[in-house]
Design goal:
heterodimer, A: alpha+beta, 7-stranded mixed beta sheet, 5-stranded mixed beta sheet, 17 helices, globular, B: alpha+beta, 5 strands, about 35% helix, about 15% strand
Chain lengths: ~775, ~150
Amino acid sequence: MKKELKYVGTRAVRLDGLEKVTGAAKYVDDLEFGPGMLYVSVLESPYAHAMIKSIDTAEAEKMPGVKAVLSGKDFPEKFGLYLKDNSIFPADRVRYIGEQVAAVVAETPKQGEAAVKKIKVEYEPLPVIQDPREAIKPGAPLVHPDLGKYEVVPWLYPQPGTNIGHVRKIRKGDIEKAFEEASFILEDWYHVPHVVHAPIETHISVSLYSYDGRLTMWNSTQSPHTQRNIIANALKIPHKNVRVVAPYVGGGFGGKAGINMEVIAAVAAMKVPGHPVKLRWTRKQEFENSSQRQELYAHIKMGVNKEGKIIALKHQLYWDVGASAEYGSNVVNATGFSATGPYYIPNVYIDSFAIYTNRPPCGAYRGFGYSEFHFGIESHMDRIAKAIGMDPVEFRKKNAIKRGEPVAYGVEMNPTGIQECIDKVAEKIEWGKEDKSPDPNKIRAKGFASVWKAPAMPPNESSAAFIKFSEDGSINILVSGMELGQGFLTAMAKIAAEELQLPLEKIRVELPDTDRNPYEWQTVASHVTWSCGNAVMRAAIDARNEILKTVSRAYHIEKASLYLEDGKVKCFTDPDFELPFEKFVINGIEMPDGTFRGGPIMGHGMFMPEFTSAKVNPETGLGGHPNVHYTTGAGAVEIEIDKETGRIRVLKMAEAFDAGKAINPDLVEGQIIGGFVQGLGTALWEEVKFDKNGKILNPNFTDYKIPTALDVPRDMNPIIVEVPQPDGPFGARGIAEHTMIPVMPAVANAVENALGIRIKEVPITPEKILNALREKEQNKQ
Amino acid sequence: MRREINFTLNGGSVKIDVMPNEKLLDVLRDRLGIKSPKHGCGRGECGACTVLLNGKSIRSCITLAIEVDGQEITTLEGIEKNNMTDLQKSFLSHNAFQCGFCASGMTMTATELLTKNPNPDEEEVREAIAGNLCRCTGYKNIVEAILDVSKEK
């Protein structure tokens, strides 16, 4: 590795900070499109499951201001990221309440809303299925009778004639024999309900189909190139004629990964060439028809030997992916490979099922399924530790996976700082030290969890970067990773700054535009610092080589004698030689005869993890290399519970993550705090509630509470651990999603430590606490 | 139906015809080009659309435009004018925001707080911004940035 790092790892004001505090930052809804703008209004299904007998749009078409009406008969295409089970508008069957059935393009939103009411749809209601444990049974009503006809990537296995969109199996070792040998076995169920991303900016798209046949979209998205690919393929437009521009995103959290409502805006635009059309989800639509986090029912059976080593795990995961598994099937797949948690376990049996129901489609959500299964695994870890008389932190340290040990699918674990993460969190939370509330009605206790997560990606995900210089020696970095708030722009700038020895204030990083910026798969999986960071690093090295080559040619100095410092080329052998970038990076270097050497300096870089493979044995999950690496960490909370009201307050948190190398330490800390608080919402308050017909009962922030400034612990302690990732830029690996994962089990473990009750279903509401306390009292009597 | 209203917007006077059911947020954003207040929920729940009415923070998404006739409205565009305020500088140096969508509303609420109470304690800051939802940051840096400004005074 290099000498001392000057930019990477230092604290800095984020690149997008000034734009955001001054209001200069533009989000899609802030862009101006002139008086030609039209608005899209959507008619939603009132049924969770029904056949569409007929749609009559005649009256709607005659309404004032209406330019076009769209419905399923015009759009037979299916689309999706991994499994093409999604409809632009369903032709014959609705599968959840809120699903788009038709749309109106009108001059004003009000005219559109009035016209939508005039669309007549005749439905024939079908049985509604909402519980994945019922939906998986033979004979259950089918959500996708045509499952066998859908296009799917080769590493997912839909099971036609059932509601199973995918099943990922792991069969490692001899599970039955291991359970026979175990000295203690615990089995139980855990339940994590649906939650929503709740970005403050709802989904929005402005789309323009111009008369020359080009489709331009301004979307709030994490996935501009993936959206371009899906739209181009679904609508049969050449890729070069689809352009996705991505201004700042007002919160993503996985909800703006892949594609969903944007496809409606695209087809609406194609009906009214020359007019930009805007489709902006209301908060209610955001709840009902963007995507949610999968619900999980998990059954865990874990066996340990006399030494306290875990020797067997049977983990069955029943995921409700809702009405579409186009993206969510990969959550199910990824967690199937990793549902051991961060432990070495020699005998593993995992079934992870993607189960269709008549609930809204589910997809990526910060943590990509790992939060949900860690709730069970980490609850189980505490319960087993207590049962065998071992300290829960010690039990975790004893079983934590080490570098080189095989993970469940057989590949060796990457370098990991999990022991250090556990130790530092235990130290910070003062594990083992009792703390008493001054109020006799309140009890304080601590809870712990350790976690891991790998990016879940196709084996050929990739990133690319261009770097171009300007006359004053500054650079623009063109990438298509998305700044979601996590600090992507700043991380890319620092990586380039380090390689080019160019001060940060001379660097801009551009937001994605698929016409101009090079390819990025998606900003998901907490992988862009690693993947796009590698591409930027290569682009910077490429530009540096161009610089050195040019200077070497012009001055006849050996390349090896030249180096870069503070935006200048310097020479080891001639301390007086100093050539600032601005002297030559565009206009070249003048020779004695008046000719010039060089030209505009550019760099390009690309990255693809060439060692991964999704080709595994479907029956065992073994034989491939589905994940690039795991990031590990640990988290703990100190809570205070009011025994009379059941109310929980989290007083203190500590979380440590092994970032490999924190490119932006202060922004890494920001991710740890922010992710913790999002996790706290899911631990204590957040749950999407459905009635028996599949209707969401709380599609707003009054009835669905996300944490406010009053709800969070006052004492928050983010900790960075750095065990370098060998193939990461400066050793970096991702941490942003991971920070959410420890919270649900850490809180549940703290509740048990406080009151001796085990809550196996989040959110841990006062009602659940009081019911459990009552039950405990009754059992005593 | 339409009615002419006159109000002060960021120090300048505005005269505009509005429908009785037009929301202040829509008038500001779509008709007057004031883009800092954001649409987050449309129900007064998230605080992204916060502006100041005669110095007091309101939700512009549930305020009718005709209600501000004769009143004074201030948005982020109005408080910074030529220079960033100390509060904005503090938000910047604390890396207070992530996605930034709540930033404008949060800034208006904190501006109101610091005008009324130049030296709030941590709980007063948290109480003041409790109606401004932020999904990214966990509020820590936002609170610290506001407290830092008050300390300097």
